[in-house]
Design goal:
Elements: H1 2-54, H2 57-60, E1 67-83, E2 90-97, E3 110-112, E4 117-118, E5 122-136, E6 140-149, E7 154-157, H3 161-170, E8 175-177, H4 178-183, E9 190-193, E10 202-205, E11 210-213, E12 216-219, H5 222-231, H6 234-264, H7 272-281, H8 291-307
Parallel strand pairs: 4-6, 7-8, 7-9, 9-10
Antiparallel strand pairs: 1-2, 1-5, 2-3, 5-6, 10-11, 11-12
Helix pairs in contact: 6-7, 7-8
Amino acid sequence: MMLKKGYLQISFAWLFAIIVGAFILFLAIYGTTKVANLGQYQISTETAKKIGVLLNPLETGFETGKTTSLSLNVDTRIYTKCDEEGDFGRQIIRISQKSFGKWPEPAGGVPFKNKYIFSSNVSEGKKFYIFSKPFEFPFKVSDLIYLTSSQQIYCFFDPPESIEKEISDLKQENLLLGDSCLEKGVKQGIKVCFDTREQCDVTVKYEEGVVEKKGDRLNFYEDALMYAAIFGDKQIYECQFKRLMKRTKQLTLMYADKANFLSQKKCYSNLNQDLMLFANNLENRENAEDVDNLINNVENIRRKNDISYCKLW
């Protein structure tokens, strides 16, 4: 009986030790995982901040009509989100970088009030391309930034001569003219057509100012918004358009004040009333379809400023 009792005591001691050891091991693994996740979260957040700085053409000296690339060491997903709330809204960038074969939840969003990025909701890869164009409406409002993954090829078929030259001059490896796509045997590229051919992913009705894709019609004004409609998802495009209109309104009021100041100095631009009317028309624009209702205002103001002795911009 004593031997049996001792045997039971030893077994219980070993069992207790195993349980305690397993618990300690669990805590160690859990703690290490939490620290690793926290480190990954911080790295991703910092990466998002650095991307935000890189995307600012004014801060980096990045020239319009030029392209640059962003290369990362690991597979990365760039999440771009647009928030229209507030005076100017916000551009939000989030990053997720593949770790141990898995995609962690994207890090906390890094907001920017002065950036307008047009891309897919999620762009994935190790290398990304960026180029920008100024949006003028009728004065310069901001630089629009287009971000694409090197994994996604865009094939432009029969674009107008100016667009063909621009795509060619950019020399961006994932933006190809139609003939180049055919020569290189690109099969998974996004077909961007400027004619009426069938089976195109994106159809651009250039003279009408309309981009059609995924069953949606996106109205645009001039080439900067055309590219935005091609590269940006509908939700991002519409949200950024509202943000741009908010910024345009504030700039319009600023130029109206400048016109009043110059008129006091006997330097007349004759744009005071036109600018105030334009500012009123910019109020509460719901979507990009409203751009058609503003074009007459824009062209009239641009024409008057061009011939004015006291130009406002």
